Structures are given as structure tokens and as C-alpha cells.
């Protein structure tokens, strides 16, 4: 089976200093790499490629893109968009946004993939439609596609049908689609009135859509965590101890390195090299004390830029346990290690991911016979306990790294004892 053509060929850096893209086996040099001119020429080229069924006309000449590219770069009035010779389509807007995403989310592959997929959906259904014709009605059509299929490219074969996306996530994706057109305003491809028009589409309300409603995330039962921990490797167990003691996000735990921890003072301070709000210029400093400090001490004796928690070490531990629990005497059967694949296709990664961390916990929870739970419930547990212990949100907000107390309220379930005391103090009729 032939490999399907790429809908958006990648723009690459060439040693000559130019941007280069390969289409139909031909290399096109677009100008100085990452210059506005090369990006504009790339957007026009991809639009022509998609418009002609993922191929270029036989007599195509790159110079034919110069006029439209110049219009994209022109510092003129929004009325230019409506000129018949230079009507900007949705594919122009998405092509420019794809380039923007690479610099907006340089360290977040998940965010880049989400934005790329939204661009693909727009290109699949509205690529050749002029921007001026894409209004709230068509945005509602895109939203309906997201309700039914989410960001998946095909139905979920394992379940036999597509899984519906939650209402809140659909609203978030819809806002992201509007952001694509909002970026087009800064490049003078879209009128600011068009974005204001798209924003008139009201978000999906509770009970008024087929989109599913996700349950609120509740703190996990600490007894379930303790039972689960008995079936985890020492490495995953140490990660649990750190997360419970600090309320860190899972990614902040995966990224811990000796060089990121200041151990010069009485209190160790961990400053993640990358965190959720770093792009907003905010700093994240997490105190490492008590059980969290004890949990990481044994993992600090390594290269300063190496991750504390290694999947390869966890795999080695599992193999050693398997060997120790072997029932067949050593002098019978296969020798230890002889039936392992020499070069397996899937090697242990150098760093844990949200998926591998979650899967390890859920497998152990199933073995322990406790209710299903996931790592983010530990963050909710820490926020709830800290808030109840300190009698307010300030300490929990600082520990969680939240920008607002409202977000801390979302994470910290209000104490039942506090509500009971308030009820007892209420006036009587």
C-alpha cells in the first residue's frame, strides 16, 4: 500500500541559509530561513498544493507565488483582503499559524500536535473557502465535528465507534480555532471584525449538547495509594512520595535533575527547567522538605543533568525481582537472561512520560484491588489536605504554583469539617 501524501510538507532549514520545502520530488527554496518572506511564500505554495489535490500544476513556477505572498506581507488596509486577485483562504491562515506554533510551543509536543490537528480539520473541510466566508455558522460546524470525533483522525476501532469528547474540552478547542484566526489578524490576513464575529458563537452549555460531561476530579483515598504503592517499583514509589509531599504536576517530577535542585540552604529548592506557566514569565520554585527530600536522596548520586527517575532502572529492578521469584531451579530450564531480545524495538526511555507514569500506577492499583485512580488525583489530595491544615488557600496556592486562588479552590475540595463548623454557627430562626 502506497504511503499517503503529506498534506502540509515540512519547511526545513538548508545549509545555504534558506528555507526549503520538498513537494512532488522537487525542492523549492523560499528565501532566508524564518524570514517573513519565506513564511508567506511557503503559505501560498502549500495552499496551491492542497487546492490541486496534493500536487502542483505541471507548469508551476515558484515565482507565481510572489504576488500573493507580497499581499500577505503588505502593510495596507484590511480592504486588500477583499480584492478579487488576492482573496485569502482558510488554508493561508492555517499555514501561517503552523509556523507560529513552532515558536509558541517549542517544548510542548502535545500543544503543537493539538494545534496541528485543528489546522488539519480546517483544511480538510474549508481549505479553499475565503476567510470572509468563514463565520459563526461554519465555526459551529467545526465544533460539531469536535463533539463527534474530537481530534481523532479515524473512529476508535477498539471500541467500534468514536468516543465523544467532553463539553468543556470542545469549548476549549473551539476557542483554539478562534485563536488561529486571531493570529491571522496580526498577519493582516483576517479582519479584526471577523474574529469578533466568530466570538459571538456561545459556548456549549450544560445539558444542551451531546458532548459528554466529565466528572470532577476528586482527591484519591490515601489508603488506596498506600495499597497501590506495595506493587510498584521503588522508583515509581519514590515519585509518588514526592508528588504527595509537594503537590507537583507529574511533568515536574519527570524532569527533576540534580542541577535543578539548590541544596545550599536548610531547605532544598527545586526550580523546574520547564513548567506550565514559564512562557508567561513566571518562576516556579518548589521546596523539597520532609518525605520528599528523603525520597530523592538516593537518586541524587548521578550526572547533574541526568533525570532522577529512570525507566531503564525501573525495568532492571523488575527483572531482578522476576529472577528472585523464579520457581524453576537455576540449574534447570533457561539460564537467566538468555530468552531476552538482544535489541528490542522498544527500549526504555530516558525519562518518564505522563502515559508511562499513569499506566504503571493503574496496573498496580488493579493488582492491589483498589479503585481506579490517576496521578493528578494526588495533586488534588495534597491541595485539599494543605488547605484544610492551614485554614486558607494562600499556602496551598503557593505550593501548587497557581496564579489565582480560584484555581486552588478548583483543586482543593472544601473541608467538610469547616463547612460543618460554619453550619453550626449559622443563625437559627
What can you see in these coordinates?
- This protein has 429 residues and is mainly alpha-helical.
- It has two domains: 188 residues, no CATH class; 169 residues, hpI Integrase, Chain A (Orthogonal Bundle).
- 47% of the residues lie in helices and 6% in strands.
- It contains 17 helices and six strands.
- Strands 1-2-3 form a three-stranded antiparallel beta sheet, covered by helices on one side. The protein has a three-stranded antiparallel beta sheet with strand order 4-5-6.
- β1 and β2 form a beta hairpin.
- The radius of gyration is 27 Å and the shape is globular.
- The chain starts with 10 loop residues before the first strand and ends with a helix.
- About 4% of the residues have low confidence.
